């Protein structure tokens, strides 16, 4: 499984994502047997030396790496880290890449990781073109992929002027989570669930990703983006497609993208009456936030997929900042038994419908909750659960962090877990009514589950969280 040598150019190297995820992920790949022969060239607006960048990376790793490095490991990784400021221009970057290639023994493939906002993307692409770093290269692009249909098309066109679609990897790190991939394994690796995976047996679906986290250092990004663009149009819709898609003809990128894109095309345009936008009290007092900001820090919505399998089955999505708990669950609620033969008070149905739940947390769990008999006399029923957790297997140490997995896949030229220009454009199109006329934000107290209106939105069902 070992990857061939690569030069990785990391644009936005001193940003938040780089600190939290990319540098720790690259360290793990470089120090494991997975990708030992990489050189990383960091680049950003800041004027740093190699040593200063290594210091930045050291700090990032000690704060965010799940696997603490020994001194020897750190020295080994630090030796692979170099830095070129944006001010060095295309020439400076080309020279740094050439030096890295020499250290790796000649002409090697490159991966350009664009951890930059969309406005900066055209400049990065120009630099790569001027530096002649386009051939033998792949680019990883970070969301947001535009802010509406027109800007997404514009961005895609700009990138396509330099890179072919097969060189572009639009990353959605939720698809790199072990549990998201387990949705595919679970659905298509078993005969048990697929026959009931439709409107005849499924009552509704919840994709619920509350976060305790606030803005952290990202106020200006967040203020301009909001929860819908930051989370729903990217991560939650992508996960929804894994849940809702038809079986692909093969587990290969083109077949999967085709099926996902069909889901996006079948999504009903968002009806703003089915949307609750929220803002936590105190958001407007945060640094970098407008005093009259209308940015949503919370959103819940009901969407429908108008196809044969899902007609009439509501999908409820919710996510927000500064909420009561941090959770990432997908919950499939099954229909009730057609007739209850249990006496009143037996407990059946009292704790909601039976559910299948995928937990997208790092431990990755799948659980099935159902009614079963309470031990003892009489016939009382309790909600019971069967559960699988990767933590409980002897393979727990093999779990790759989402970014590690996806960076590896991009180096391997495997598009399976990446999104396509076409899919993204359909999602923006479906979102147009909400973007054009967003309902006003409702306030919610930090540490809560969102504004009260979330209960009306899901009625007659109930949110599965809190457990
Ligand atoms: C990012 C969003 O893409 O995903 C963040 O920009 C969010 O706002 C994060 O906190 C959540 O990712 P994870 O992997 O921590 O669930």
Automatic annotation (TrEMBL):
Annotated signal sequence range: none
Start and end residues of each Glucose-6-phosphate dehydrogenase NAD-binding domain: 9-182
Substrates-to-products reaction catalysed: D-glucose 6-phosphate + NADP(+) = 6-phospho-D-glucono-1,5-lactone + NADPH + H(+)
Coiled-coil intervals, chain numbering: none
UniProt-listed Enzyme Commission number(s): 1.1.1.49
Binding residue positions for substrate: 173, 177, 211, 230, 321
Positions annotated to bind NADP(+): 12-19, 143
Active site: 235 (proton acceptor)
Alphabetized Pfam families for the sequence: G6PD_C, G6PD_N
Pathway terms, separated by semicolons: Carbohydrate degradation; pentose phosphate pathway; D-ribulose 5-phosphate from D-glucose 6-phosphate (oxidative stage): step 1/3
Residue ranges of every copy of the Glucose-6-phosphate dehydrogenase C-terminal domain listed in the record: 184-462
InterPro entries in alphabetical order: G6P_DH (IPR001282), G6P_DH_AS (IPR019796), G6P_DH_C (IPR022675), G6P_DH_NAD-bd (IPR022674), NAD(P)-bd_dom_sf (IPR036291)
Domain of life: Bacteria
Keywords: Carbohydrate metabolism, Glucose metabolism, NADP, Oxidoreductase
Family listed: Belongs to the glucose-6-phosphate dehydrogenase family.
Function comment: Catalyzes the oxidation of glucose 6-phosphate to 6-phosphogluconolactone.
Protein name: Glucose-6-phosphate 1-dehydrogenase
Organism listed in the record: Microlunatus ginsengisoli
Lineage, broadest ranks: Bacteria, Bacillati, Actinomycetota, Actinomycetes, Propionibacteriales
